[in-house]
Amino acid sequence: MEHQPRAAWRDKLHEVIFEADTRAGQWFDIGLLVAILISVTVVCLETVEDLQSVYGVWFYYAEWTLTVLFTIEYALRLICVRRPLGYATSFYGIVDLLSFLPTYVSSIGFGRFGSFAVVRSFRLLRVFRVLKLINLTSESEDLAGAVWRARGKIIVFLAVVFITVTIAGAAMYEVERIHDPIETQFTSIPQSIYWAIVTMTTVGYGDIVPHTTLGKLLSALLILVGYSLIIVPTGFVSAEAVESRKKRKALTQTCPYCMAEGHLSDAVYCRLCGKPL
Amino acid sequence: MEHQPRAAWRDKLHEVIFEADTRAGQWFDIGLLVAILISVTVVCLETVEDLQSVYGVWFYYAEWTLTVLFTIEYALRLICVRRPLGYATSFYGIVDLLSFLPTYVSSIGFGRFGSFAVVRSFRLLRVFRVLKLINLTSESEDLAGAVWRARGKIIVFLAVVFITVTIAGAAMYEVERIHDPIETQFTSIPQSIYWAIVTMTTVGYGDIVPHTTLGKLLSALLILVGYSLIIVPTGFVSAEAVESRKKRKALTQTCPYCMAEGHLSDAVYCRLCGKPL
Amino acid sequence: MEHQPRAAWRDKLHEVIFEADTRAGQWFDIGLLVAILISVTVVCLETVEDLQSVYGVWFYYAEWTLTVLFTIEYALRLICVRRPLGYATSFYGIVDLLSFLPTYVSSIGFGRFGSFAVVRSFRLLRVFRVLKLINLTSESEDLAGAVWRARGKIIVFLAVVFITVTIAGAAMYEVERIHDPIETQFTSIPQSIYWAIVTMTTVGYGDIVPHTTLGKLLSALLILVGYSLIIVPTGFVSAEAVESRKKRKALTQTCPYCMAEGHLSDAVYCRLCGKPL
Amino acid sequence: MEHQPRAAWRDKLHEVIFEADTRAGQWFDIGLLVAILISVTVVCLETVEDLQSVYGVWFYYAEWTLTVLFTIEYALRLICVRRPLGYATSFYGIVDLLSFLPTYVSSIGFGRFGSFAVVRSFRLLRVFRVLKLINLTSESEDLAGAVWRARGKIIVFLAVVFITVTIAGAAMYEVERIHDPIETQFTSIPQSIYWAIVTMTTVGYGDIVPHTTLGKLLSALLILVGYSLIIVPTGFVSAEAVESRKKRKALTQTCPYCMAEGHLSDAVYCRLCGKPL
Question: Which of A144, B264, D59, D228 is 20 to 30 Å from D189 by CA-CA measure?
Fold first, then answer.
């Protein structure tokens, strides 16, 4: 982080664009939020034929206006940030770039306009930036932290789910094919695994259902096993959440002698210097 | 809150209508609960054609009888309350007004009777008033409090869900349209987002389902991601509930000497310093 | 509980039938469990036409054999219990009676045999009796206790669900009818409420689905609201479970001077006599 | 565990195959993981007709190559393990055997190749072995431990579910048959029980749905009861998880003077008696 002398306007601009402490910075964030939501709404509504045939031209103008605005914003960010390359290659830098690039690319003839809908919808990720506006940064860090600390258990859990649905899928493929090899809906093991995932997570579309008695029995078993499995990680995330609440509360008690923080709430003596709290 | 001298009968009336401490107040609440339930049942059954053609006239009489009773009740509330305007503009004041107004409005010719069914069903909200009858006020405050304290995390969570379903919806729209642009069920991105919400929350109607292999793969991925996401706020509400239980218990006993909290309710001496509580 | 002198064989019989402490009592319970499971299996399989046409006569014999055994068991219970009337009018007394009565009633001509299937399936409730065999009584009391302590919150929660589905049902009825009053699947408000329950609890059969854009929007909203609502009681039951675990553990610490139990695990002094633990 | 003198290469081999402490052992585990995943992918893709007709011969070669490798691996395990018979009859020994045996069996003519898909998919269970590679053994033990400690409650819960679905199934069978005995989807009680399981766990395929008013009412009731039931074990697994977190933390620090548990890991003095830890 080299500290080169910088023009005051660049510091000011940085404050407006990257922070939400000043009035101007807050208005910038609100404007950005509105622009993102409008542009994503346009991306969505463009694909509704009835609306596209009537308001298509307005959608076109809105898309280009917002694209130009996003381009200017990206340029301003590049200018005012201390390390432009670092920003450009960061997660949000790439998301910011993807918020206007697809429109230009599609306009110079690479395929039809609509085919970039997915890439264009990525701009919605920029909403996370605006969370700092309403002081939700610590909340989202709490959520992310609980998931992160429980990651080991989530991986093990997903491995168990993965193994269960594969074996259940293979079993259902065999069982349903014996009964009626022509009209079975379990046409292949990947198809059966798709069914097993849809079933075990209790989504239950009903596009693929067992038709044989043994298939229904296996299905009921998978549902019950799956249901019992799925409550386990819930419990562990709960435990992490309980823990993180306790830790934050515990951090409030501070030793008046050595200023050590993080004493348990019922502590009588400082755990570092031994003096009474 | 000005204290003007008031007639004794108005105080008495207030006690009966707004409190549930006296025998009369309890009977009033029970009567009100029964009236609300009957009137909502009538609103529902009116729309069943078989019943309407046979019992329609009874439904009509019941509706008008209850409407008149609710009107009288509203007038009495206005009379006995200290600040009628404050009551009339409060949440329950408006709900009370809406419990009889639609019937009058529809009778003087504004549209057909049935079209106010939604507004008329709002009267069910008055049931919350009667919760005080069975001492459930503190319980509902606990529930509301847990949701309220977890509101930040719920907003972040809903933002994550909102962003995920939009991107997933756009992706599925593209993927399914490539395979079969005519017969795809993912006719537009809003339609795809509706599918993504139905899928990620494990409702899974099955009215819209992926038909391509890539679509099924994406779908399975969304289900697993969605399922993992959804357990997180559950954990945090659990943590809040554990906390609120502890806090309520803690409020019963604190040592006056060492300020240690969390003594059991029958404790005579502090468990940490040994001094009497 | 009058203490009349009783024959030793009646005490012995009581021990075998009602307790699971002795070897004989355990064998009796295992036999009873097997008899219940066989008899309920017969009730179920009788309704499968393919099996009934082939094994019908065996089902008939099995049903009658078990009915006679259940009758004898009921008579023995009446004989060996101290207060026969108290037993006969208790919950399990009635369940025991219902385990054989329907077979006799149907045999003397009241309707066809199958129409008592529901009543006959009640005998499955007797399985709870056998839980004492595998030391699960305290476990089931824990579960029942957690539900019981959270009953207030469950009632409030069910009231909220009830009100939400009624208002959502009325709204969907109006919305979907405007679009297509003839072919709408939301034919009446009760039907819409059924849809709202199926949707909000994430069952999502898909037999009734919204067809209008506004209907789908409302539906997505109900799903998200419903989903957020439903996590709340989970959290409170978790809190109750955490609490009940803690209480049981806390009960282990006992004051060596006054024998008072239930001290918190980090207690230094007895909370009742003030002496060190 | 007799300690006979063993050749150094067998100890070395044992270290590579059974442990993940050495570099060689880690590479072996990674190779094994890749081989398992490829072989299971082949088992799945073989059943997709379009792929089988084009790449069938490659699938055949891949299957035989991996089968030979698994055979060699099994032989090496038998050689380097101290008690070959103990290994061969252990859970993983059987899983290892089943990972190559079906291919040989099917090649010497017992039925068509595909019919061993289920048995062949069992080799996926070997993935659990590789969890030690990424230090997830303690995580999976935590998960298994929480389920194990809550086993009593899970059994009671499954008993309640089992009894509820049977009674609900019998009731729906009767109710729906009265209305339309010919076209009812509830053709038998086992079929109705399958419906009840699918409904109560909120899977909700929609292949079987109630068509009568009473059936829909019963269905809504079952959904609400079922939903309320299902949150209970979640709470208890949460409690177990909270407990197991606490226990592990408690194990790090206990005061040697006053035996107070739960000191923070950086504590130098006991927070209750002030003496050094």
Answer: D228
Q: Answer yes or no: do A202 and C202 touch at CB < 8 A.
A: yes
Residue C198 pLDDT level (bands cut at 50, 70, 90): very high
Phi, psi torsion values for A276, nearest 5 degrees: -65, 140
Asked whether residue D215 is assigned to any structural domain, the reply reads: yes
CA distance D263 to B33: 54
- The predicted pLDDT at position A242 comes to 73
Minimal CA separation from B146 to chain A, in Å: 13
Number of folded domains that form chain B: 2
Residue-number span of the structural domain to which D78 is assigned:
4-136
Q: What confidence tier does D219 reach under pLDDT thresholds 50, 70, 90?
A: very high
Does residue A46 fall inside a structural domain? Answer: yes
Average pLDDT, chain B: 80
Is residue C126 less than 8 Å (CB to CB) from chain D? no
Place B2 in a pLDDT band, splitting at 50, 70 and 90: very low
3-state class of A123 per DSSP?
helix
Contacts of B203 in chain C (CB under 8 A): 199, 202-204, 223
Supply the DSSP string of A48-103, one letter for each residue: SHHHHHHHHHHHHHHHHHHHHHHHHHHHHHHHHSS-HHHHHTSHHHHHHHHTTHHH
A12 and A131 part of one domain? yes
The number of beta carbons lying within 10 Å of the beta carbon of residue C211 is 14
C115 touches A at CB < 8 Å: no
Read off the pLDDT of each residue in A183-192 and give the average, rounded to a whole number.
89
pLDDT at residue D267, rounded to an integer: 60
**Interface check B75 vs A, CB under 8 A:** no
- pLDDT band, residue C269 (cuts 50/70/90): low
How much is the pLDDT for A110? Answer: 55
Q: What is the pLDDT of residues B220-277, one digit of tens each?
A: 999 888 777 766 767 777 777 777 666 655 444 556 566 565 555 555 666 666 666 6
Contact C136 D152 (CB under 8 A): yes
Q: Counting Cβ atoms within 10 Å, is residue C52 exposed (0-12), middle (13-18) or buried (19+)?
A: middle
* Nearest-angstrom CA–CA distance, B35 and B38: 5
Q: Do D27 and D79 share a structural domain?
A: yes
Q: What does the pLDDT read at residue A153?
A: 75
Residue C232 parent element (H or E): helix C213-250
CATH code of residue D194 = 1.10.287.70
- List all residues 6 or more positions away from B191 whose beta carbon is below 8 Å from its beta carbon: B173, B185, B208, C216
For residues B118 and C174, give the distance between their C-alpha atoms in angstroms, rounded to a whole number.
7
- Taking CB atoms and an 8 Å limit, are A234 and D233 in contact across chains? no
**What is the CB neighbour count within 10 angstroms for residue D62?**
17
DSSP per-residue string spanning chain D: -------HHHHHHHHHHH--SSHHHHHHHHHHHHHHHHHHHHHHHTTSHHHHHHHHHHHHHHHHHHHHHHHHHHHHHHHHSS-HHHHHTSHHHHHHHHTTHHHHHHHTTSS-GGGGHHHHHGGGGGHHHHGGGGT-HHHHHHHHHHHHHTHHHHHHHHHHHHHHHHHHHHHHHHHHHHH-TTT-S--SHHHHHHHHHHHHTT---SSS---SHHHHHHHHHHHHHHHHHHHHHHHHHHHHHHHHHHHHHHTT-B-TTT--B---TT--B-TTT--B-
Is A188–D117 a contact, with Cβ atoms under 8 angstroms apart? no
The string of DSSP letters for B69-110 reads HHHHHHHHHHHHSS-HHHHHTSHHHHHHHHTTHHHHHHHTTS
**Residues A43, A129: one domain?**
yes
CA atoms within 13 A on the CB side of B56: 9
Contact B153 A139 (CB under 8 A): yes
Domain boundary among C107, C136, C165: C136
